[in-house]
């Protein structure tokens, strides 16, 4: 099944920000576009707003004047649903309520032709449930654009339980013809992005609730060590705390209150207080002309050690060894040891975050995972009250000698980046095993939809197939609620192809 022909009219119902964005995408691609809104006058206002945005595209040399004029001529506001009868695709972007969407699509089904494709832009409702109200649910698919639709490339093409393969394929190819990057997804709570992204927010909030670090420090570590474009606190302020918390809650409820998706009490308090982020002038941070952004906690200058003893290859942190040598610090390697730690001159140890805590051992400092230790500009360390001051000072001095700012946080298992990445990897493997999407589409969705530096499977290959499972096993031992219990899918991945002796 091929994409819609450019001569085929496309209709968009609902003229809010998302509806206007989708209409603009179809219009610029070359389709005749009909706009409808139940509130009189809104469709006409939306058409004018789209026209103004087309003018700005001409000013930025992204459209020619002739292309703009042709696009304007193809755009027409509709006074009633009956004017959409000749549409080959209708995308609804109305209020996020199941009954509203069902009623609208039932009405449309009686107006358009039998071969017209119907699409919902829902971000949180079940496509299957929406289609359940239709006479022909096979023609309904989800087309989940990301805001702002004209700028962001990702579109999740969601197949409900009754969606025809031909309908999903046509929607997929049409999105691609519009210059978007579509990914195919089964109908599941949160689809791909809003399902797999939950730990990015949840783990940051958990570290904050444990009083291990403040929002500015957690955000700085996620950016400067994890390679994420924004930290969880600043990103939810941008999205809107009410919106982000609502999505988390809807996913949690749709999974029958699965503990892996439990909302944050701290975020709930923020929402209840009216601090919804940038749009209200205050969220986790204050906004406005006189607002001062808090600085992350950064350790004072410390003396680096003269040498370290590397016991084992440091696993995912192996690239630290050449960096240490380049800094003029001697590295003595104990090739007979198979551990993953550095022994400092004080006798204390420095180990990569693995889900354990410093208080469980004598004189151990944990350091956090980094996307790229050479490029990272900040590293988080954790120590307990039993860690010797000299050991912590040597650990701080070591990373400072590598050109990194150091943030010492509370003794929480998995620190910040490690626990976050491990959980994202786990949810991604679980989604593939349950038929939600392919590995490739999940990686694409997370890179393009939420701007992750790597897709979950790219992270998994970089870190080693057993790394995420081992970290989550340790976290689960310390929090047996089930939040960190590794999925069966991740267990199978971690132990695939391992040779074992004996029989079951």
UniProtKB/TrEMBL annotation:
Q: In which pathway does it act?
A: Lipid metabolism; butanoate metabolism
Q: Which SUPFAM superfamilies match?
A: 6-phosphogluconate dehydrogenase C-terminal domain-like, NAD(P)-binding Rossmann-fold domains
Q: Which Pfam families match?
A: 3HCDH (PF00725), 3HCDH_N (PF02737), 3HCDH_RFF (PF18321)
Boundaries of every 3-hydroxyacyl-CoA dehydrogenase C-terminal domain copy: 190-287, 414-495
Q: Which Gene3D superfamilies match?
A: 1.10.1040.50, N-(1-d-carboxylethyl)-l-norvaline Dehydrogenase, domain 2, NAD(P)-binding Rossmann-like Domain
One Gene Ontology term of the biological-process aspect is: fatty acid metabolic process
Question: Residue limits of the 3-hydroxybutyryl-CoA dehydrogenase reduced Rossmann-fold domain?
Answer: 354-413
Start and end of every 3-hydroxyacyl-CoA dehydrogenase NAD binding domain?
Answer: 10-187
Single annotated GO MF: NAD+ binding
Which keywords does this Swiss-Prot/TrEMBL entry list?
Answer: Oxidoreductase
- Family in the record: Belongs to the 3-hydroxyacyl-CoA dehydrogenase family.
Q: NCBIfam families from the xrefs?
A: PRK08268.1
Q: Which PANTHER family does this one have?
A: 3-HYDROXYACYL-COA DEHYDROGENASE FAMILY PROTEIN, 3-HYDROXYBUTYRYL-COA DEHYDROGENASE
User: What is this protein's name?
Assistant: 3-hydroxyacyl-CoA dehydrogenase
């Amino acid at each position: 099944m091929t994409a819609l022909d450019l001569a085929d009219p496309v209709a968009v119902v609902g003229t809010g920000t998302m509806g206007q964005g989708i209409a603009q995408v179809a219009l610029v691609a070359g389709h005749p576009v009909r706009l409808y809104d139940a509130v009189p006058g809104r469709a006409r206002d939306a058409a004018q707003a789209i026209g103004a945005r087309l003018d700005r595209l001409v000013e930025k040399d992204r459209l020619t004047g002739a292309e703009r004029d042709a696009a304007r001529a193809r755009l027409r506001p509709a006074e009633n649903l009956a004017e959409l009868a000749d549409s080959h695709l209708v995308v609804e972007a109305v209020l996020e309520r199941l009954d509203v969407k069902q009623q609208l699509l039932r009405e449309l089904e009686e107006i358009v032709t039998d071969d017209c494709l119907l699409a919902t832009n829902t971000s949180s409702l079940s496509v299957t449930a929406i289609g359940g109200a239709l006479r022909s649910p096979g023609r309904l698919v989800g087309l989940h654009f990301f805001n702002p639709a004209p700028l962001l490339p990702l579109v999740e093409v969601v197949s409900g339980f009754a969606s025809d393969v031909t309908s999903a394929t046509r929607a997929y190819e049409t999105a691609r013809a519009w210059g978007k990057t579509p990914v195919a997804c089964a109908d599941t709570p949160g689809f791909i992005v809003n399902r797999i992204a939950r730990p990015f927010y949840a783990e940051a909030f958990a570290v904050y609730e444990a009083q291990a670090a403040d929002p500015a420090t957690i955000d700085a570590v996620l950016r400067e060590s994890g390679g994420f474009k924004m930290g969880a606190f600043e990103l939810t302020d941008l999205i809107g705390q009410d919106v982000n918390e609502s999505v988390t809650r809807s996913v949690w409820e749709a999974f029958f209150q699965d503990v892996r998706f439990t909302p944050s009490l701290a975020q709930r308090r923020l929402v209840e207080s009216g601090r919804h982020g940038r749009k209200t002038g205050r969220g986790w941070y204050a906004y406005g002309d006189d607002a001062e952004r808090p600085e992350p906690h950064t350790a004072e200058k410390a003396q680096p050690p003269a040498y370290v003893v590397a016991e084992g290859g440091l696993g995912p942190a192996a690239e630290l060894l050449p960096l240490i040598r380049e800094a003029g610090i001697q590295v003595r390697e104990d090739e007979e040891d198979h551990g993953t730690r550095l022994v400092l001159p004080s006798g204390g140890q420095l180990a990569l975050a693995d889900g354990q805590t410093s208080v469980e051992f004598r004189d151990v400092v944990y350091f956090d995972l980094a996307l790229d230790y050479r490029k990272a500009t900040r590293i988080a360390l954790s120590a307990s009250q039993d860690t010797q001051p000299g050991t912590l000072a040597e650990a701080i001095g070591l990373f400072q000698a590598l050109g990194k700012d150091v943030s010492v946080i509370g003794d929480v298992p998995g620190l910040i980046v490690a626990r976050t990445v491990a959980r994202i990897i786990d949810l991604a493997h679980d989604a593939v095993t349950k038929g939600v999407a392919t590995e490739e589409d999940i990686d694409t969705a997370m890179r393009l939809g939420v701007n992750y530096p790597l897709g979950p499977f790219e992270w998994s290959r970089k870190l080693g197939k057993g790394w995420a499972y081992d970290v989550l096993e340790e976290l689960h031992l310390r929090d047996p609620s089930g939040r960190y219990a590794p999925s069966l899918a991740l267990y199978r991945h971690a132990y695939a192809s391992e040779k074992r002796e004996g029989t079951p």
